[in-house]
Amino acid sequence: MESSARETSAPALINWELAASTAARLAPAGPTLGAAEIATAVENLRLMADISVQHVHDITGLEAARDLRDSSVLVVDRASWAKANTQSFAVMLEPAINKMLEDRRGAIAPGTANVSGAITGSQLGAILAFLSSKVLGQYDPFSALARDSTAPAGGRLLLVAPNIIAVERELNVEPADFRLWVCLHEQTHRVQFAAAPWLRHHMLDEIANLSGHLLGNVDSLMERASAAAKSLKDRTATGATPGRGVILDLLQDPEEKAALSRLTALMSLLEGHANVVMDAVDAGIVPSVKTIRQRFNDRGTDRGLIEKFIRSLLGLDAKMRQYADGSKFVREVVAAAGMSGFNRVWESAEHLPTEPEIHDSKLWLERMGL
């Protein structure tokens, strides 16, 4: 007979299907396009994704770029992006949820879990609905690990067509140039994971470790969440700097903070590297790249109150600062050791920089003997 932990399954604690359907229902409408326009945009995005691979190879020097398959590039709408992320979240959180259920065997009734799952699923869906109109593209390394997934073993690249089109119209830039510019960033992430086949499971282990700490302290989680929400409300009311975000405020235990530090360093490295690749792109690759950069960077200065609140909740502004630190790390290492020296980060998990090393590249260079 199966245990209570098995009866109260991971999907019951978070209703992933409800999260996906809620996101699809709440996602803002995208730009109006005719059938022919949609078909043309999808074809062009696929073309730009394919063209960008060689440029990424030339800039990074990573041979893994040569083996990328077009089949793992998906041009999606907002609802499909949200559904894909619920699948990845399920993969990332399942180990921690199952461990929590095993540790609390018999303490969570199936009925209670289902109600909790519906609430959590709805909340996650609302967050995904907000993000679904903001994300231009995303490399999903965990899709191949999802149940019943038909994704290629190397993960999949998602290009959110309505968002890309909306932004290129908003900025009044050349569509083909902007699409290539976006694809260069996202294809860099594909190359990173292709160059480091161990990275997918390493990242999954780190996420499971962090979420395991959070869920393992579930008895104090609601109390900490309440205090963090009050802090956010106070900061918003007074106009204070948002800080790290409510989600990060939940972390108090030293082990939780250490787990977050490792993930922060990894994400800073991945995004910083992708940003450096984009910055290496000149007019010979994207003719209007200077205009795109200027207008794209300027668009973030005029956000509404609700968007600012949600960004504060998720800590997205803090996240952008971390990515800037990652870019600085990559540039300094390349300047000191060349691209081949920097590419040692993809050889093993032991070569990944720590958070202190992200902030002081000399520490990493010394550890690597460069």
From TrEMBL:
Any coiled-coil regions, as ranges: none
Name of the protein described by the UniProt record: Hydrolase
InterPro entries documented for this protein: CHP03883_F420-assoc, Zinicin_2, Zinicin_2_N
GO MF term (any one): hydrolase activity
One Pfam family per UniProt: Zincin_2
Keywords in alphabetical order: Hydrolase
